[in-house]
Amino acid sequence: MRTGWSSPPSTSPRRFYLGAPPSWTFREPKRVLTAGMIVLPMYQVVLDTNVLVSALRSKRGASHRLMRLIGDARWQVIISVALVLEYEAVALRHCASLGIRASVATDIVDIFCAAGRQSPIHFRWRPLLRDPGDEFILDLAVAGQCQFIVTHNKRDFEGVEQFGIRAVTPREFLAIIGE
């Protein structure tokens, strides 16, 4: 059973607080110490499907390390119904060739549903990217007010900078969050 879809989307600000939140907001989270209150950054991130496939293929790479950090207080994965369905279809398709049980793939998708924040998409920015199959990822990143799209195909996401979003590899994102 999927969890995470029954609750409404989070209305909390895009950062994690120890204490009461201040009244100001900012686009790029930073570490700030204000009157004894520590504000920890919480980046909003969309993970491209190729990161999931890479994590399933190897336990040694940055993609696998990033998947193990889902639910970490420093970042939050943004999901949509379309993206979760794609994660599930791709994971199940690669299970047999990778020697992974289908239940493991569905468990991974359940983790995305439980830890991720669902963001409704009200506007489409198409066509903007080279790969039409990646357009919905950009739509989700803009709707979810993400700072990053994590992908192995950065060239497919050229032009996302105009929305204040950076396309980065899993290794680059791990460096950003201090891993």
Describe the model.
The chain is an alpha/beta fold and 179 residues long. It has a domain at 15-78 and 116-176. The model is unreliable at 1-34 (pLDDT under 50). It is globular and about 40 Å long. The protein has a five-stranded parallel beta sheet with strand order 6-5-4-7-8, sandwiched between helices. The longest helix has 18 residues, at 81-98. The protein has helices at residues 49-57, 62-68, 81-98, 102-115, 135-143, 170-176; strands spanning 15-17, 32-34, 37-41, 43-47, 75-79, 117-118, 148-150, 166-168. Helix content is 36%, strand content 16%. The chain has six helices and eight strands; from the N terminus they run ββββααβααβαββα. Strand 2 and strand 3 (37-41) form a beta hairpin. Helix 1 crosses helix 2 (62-68) and helix 1 (49-57) packs parallel to helix 3 (81-98).
Features:
single chain; 179 residues; alpha/beta; 5-stranded parallel sheet; 3-stranded antiparallel sheet; disordered N terminus
Brief write-up:
The protein has 179 residues and is of the alpha/beta class.
Tally of contiguous helical segments: 6
Low-pLDDT runs: 1-34
**Helical proportion, percent range:** 25-40%
Overall pLDDT score: 80
Task: Please outline the helices and strands.
Elements: E1 15-17, E2 32-34, E3 37-41, E4 43-47, H1 49-57, H2 62-68, E5 75-79, H3 81-98, H4 102-115, E6 117-118, H5 135-143, E7 148-150, E8 166-168, H6 170-176
Parallel strand pairs: 4-5, 4-7, 5-6, 7-8
Antiparallel strand pairs: 1-3, 2-3
